[in-house]
Amino acid sequence: MRLPEEIVNWIKEKVKEAGKRGAVFGISGGLDSSLLAVLCKKALGDNALGLILPCHSHPEDEKYARLVAEKFGIKTERVVLDSIYEGFLQILPSADRIAKGNLMPRLRMATLYYFANKLNYLVTGSGNRSEMTIGYFTKRGDEGVDILPLGSLLKKEVRGLAKELGVQDEIIKRTPSAGLWEGQTDEGEIGISYANLDKAIVAIESHNRESLPGDLIAKVEALIKSSQHKRSPAIVFRPGHLDKSQDS
Fold it and tell me: Is the pTM of the predicted complex or chain greater than 0.85?
């Protein structure tokens, strides 16, 4: 079975297992969310809903989101979060741009779950293996989903699959950005190109670190280590844990 069909069948299976009617997902005009939207549409037809959730977003984001939705016949709803975001910041103490930027995906995720509850759908995320491995996501934001159909795919594999399924080249070639602030790009924030990140992840996981420059491997390993808490479930206190730790 080809990879697209395998993912499509997996989405169907997970929705059925959960006793849900369909899937809801954010559609931002970027590569990952566009591919996810196409796969959900293939899996669930009209029970796939893409939410366009502008929050001080660049107008081009919505333009590209609508392009992919129109080409593949994906149902959409639009909810503008600008005023909610601004109101939230007015009642919160001042903070740096990272704290303010991360509020955006958390508001979007709350909106996605509202629709999921309303429609009895699963919230479906567009996180890929490259970003999940190094923790490049907002904890309890874009990571806070029910299923991750692209979670085992490197960025280069996402790009290849999107091309195979007919996602427009102009979307595939867009500079990846979470849109957290003006001029923000994913590669700029990570400090590594996706091409090098993918190579490093493969090298580390295959225990072939010598195949790449040591500084690249060290940086990616540091990112993996420092973001472990973002990939782990909440830690639960267990009585007697400290006593056992002290005994050892």
Answer: yes
